[in-house]
Amino acid sequence: MRRASITEIACYTPPRVLTNADFEKIVDTSDAWIRERTGIVERHVVDPGTATSDLAYEACKKVLEQRGLRPSEIEAMIVATVTPDTLFPATACLLQDKLGMKGTWGFDLSAGCSGFLYALITGAQFIASGVHKKVLVVGSDVMSSIIDYADRKTCVIFGDGAGAFLLEPSDSGDVGILDFLHEIDGSGGPFLQMPAGGSRMPPSLETVQKKLHYVHQDGPQVFKYAVRKMFEISKAILDRNSLTVADIDVFIPHQANRRIIEATAERLGLCCDKVLINIDRYGNTTAATLPLATADAIRQGKLKKGGLVLYVAVGAGYTAGAALVRWAF
Ligand code: UT7
């Protein structure tokens, strides 16, 4: 078994920015409330007509260019998203066609805000088993397409974005994806969901009028679960690898709320310069938060070759996951 390494990364956010001041004009909110309760200052959103595969395309194109690869060299691709362009065909198929990836295969993966981490670990198995040598893992969401911009409890939180990692076999034994620990708890489903549009409640005039095609969230319930689970799963993966927070170079958590991240970091005993927070600029981009945060960790010099990353995410489902990665470049 060869370890999978992340050998290239790229991200894309649409150019249009919505600031907290913009939200003050559309719902009963304030810049002070949003900053204090979430840490968000601004978020990127698409113009009408732009879909998840369009954002993913930009991120994947950059990965290929940066690594000097032809699209046909990618053997498999996994797209994590909760906002596919269409229920079917899969966004992976649309993306494959746009990129001109001849002879590849791929699929979409739905795991809420843990989606990117689940896709990363799924892709890593194809490398570790020797089945593939080049796998693209993509996280892309157009959250603005499922947000009710009249609901102040949800509309200020989310943003749009995409990111992609290239996975290849590791050159050296101690570099790459070292371990992961994922779990799901479906009893949390009702607390964060889009109620209609699936087979349980197909779209109808009534579902549209009742706004059931939007994100519905019991914020405080999800908040409590996220703080507990992010800590538990981070601690568990460190313990079973005989590591402590002192061994971690950068902690990259899903960006849902600054207070969740800070509470988790404090419980873990992580000092703040090891914790990557960029929710202020992007909001919660669901499947794109981890690649966007990784790109910032590299830019800020927090993540360098040989550095140890602890990723953690919690999301709709509930889904939760953590991964330890020794950075390869
Ligand atoms: O990524 C997937 C996982 N998702 C998460 O991890 C999200 C977890 N939850 C959260 O981050 C937080 O619960 C929220 C940011 C969603 C909400 O913050 P909160 O501090 O839990 O607020 P709350 O829902 O308990 O609401 C407190 C008050 C309410 O007013 P009343 O009823 O006390 O008068 C809300 O109506 O704040 C009000 N409120 C707002 N006020 C101004 C809620 N949203 C807003 C807003 N502006 N945008």
Structure, described:
By secondary structure, the protein is of the alpha/beta class. The protein has 2 domains: 166 residues, Peroxisomal Thiolase, Chain A, domain 1, CATH 3.40.47; 151 residues, Thiolase/Chalcone synthase (Peroxisomal Thiolase, Chain A, domain 1, 3-Layer(aba) Sandwich), CATH 3.40.47. Helices cover 34% and strands 23% of the residues. The protein contains 11 helices and 13 strands. The chain has a 5-stranded mixed sheet, sandwiched between helices. The protein has a 4-stranded mixed sheet with strand order 8-13-12-11, sandwiched between helices. The radius of gyration is 19 Å and the shape is globular. The model has no long low-confidence stretch (mean pLDDT 97). The chain binds oxa(dethia)-CoA (UT7). Oxa(dethia)-CoA (UT7) binds next to helix 2, helix 6 and helix 8.
Which features does this protein show?
four-stranded mixed β-sheet; Peroxisomal Thiolase, Chain A, domain 1; 34% helix; alpha/beta; single chain; 329 residues; 2 domains; binds oxa(dethia)-CoA
How do the helices and strands line up, and which of them pair or pack?
Elements: E1 4-12, E2 17-19, H1 20-26, H2 31-38, E3 42-44, H3 52-67, E4 76-80, H4 91-99, E5 105-109, H5 115-128, E6 135-142, H6 152-155, E7 160-169, E8 176-184, E9 192-193, H7 205-209, E10 216-217, H8 219-240, E11 250-253, H9 258-268, H10 279-282, H11 289-299, E12 308-315, E13 319-326
Parallel strand pairs: 4-5, 4-6, 11-12
Antiparallel strand pairs: 1-7, 2-3, 6-7, 8-13, 9-10, 12-13
Helix pairs in contact: 3-4, 8-9
Bound molecules: oxa(dethia)-CoA (UT7).
